[in-house]
Amino acid sequence: MSGRVNRHQRKASQSMFMLPESLLNLETPLFENGGNKATTPNLVQLPLEVHVLPPPPPASTDQANATSGMAVHDDCKLKFLELKAKRTYRFIVYKIEEKQKQVIVEKVGEPAESYENFAASLPADECRYAVYDFDFVTEENCQKSRIFFIAWSPDTSRVRSKMIYASSKDRFKRELDGIQVELQATDPTEMGLDVIKSRAS
Fold first, then answer.
1. Which among 102, 151, 158, 106 has a CA at the least distance from the CA of 130?
2. What InterPro entries does the record point to (predicted)?
3. How many folded domains does the chain comprise?
4. Residue 58 lies in a domain
C-alpha cells in the first residue's frame, strides 16, 4: 500500500513541475552543435511608446532684455551713487562700448555746471544715456530736486546704435536705483529746459 502511495506521490510531483508547451516553445535550445555554441532565448518584442515633449515656452520680455543688454561697468553705479547721495556731480553721460560690450562713464559734470553744458555734452549724431540732477523751486517756494534718466537717440545716429541702446536701456536703468523721471529724446527740443521743468513738477 505504501508503494502505491509513493508512486502516486512521485507522479503528482512530476506533474507539478511540467511547463505548458506554449511556454516551452518561447525558447530555443541553449546550446547547439554538441554544446559548443550558445544561443539566446527568443525574446518577445513589445511595442515602444514614444513621448514627444512640448516645446519650451518663449522667453519673457525681461529675459530678452537681459540677454540682449550690455554689461555695466562698476564705475557707472559708483558715479551715480555719488551723484544721488553726495551730489558730487550735476550730470553723468554714459556710453556703450560696442567692442567691449559694456556701458561705461564717458563724462561727468561738476555741480556748478548748467543745463546748457549738459545738453552740449551729448553728441549730435550718436546715442547716449545720461543722468541729470535737476534742482527747482515749487510754487510753495520749496527747494526740490529730481534725478532724470535721459535716453538720447538722435535721428542722425546709426540704426544699429539705436537698436543696441534701445535693447539695453531697461537693464541698464535697473542698475541705477533712484531714477525719478525718464525722458527719451531724438532732438534737442524734446529735452529742452522747459520740458525738464514741466516733467519735474
1. 151
2. ADF-H (IPR002108), ADF-H/Gelsolin-like_dom_sf (IPR029006), ADF/Cofilin (IPR017904)
3. 1
4. no
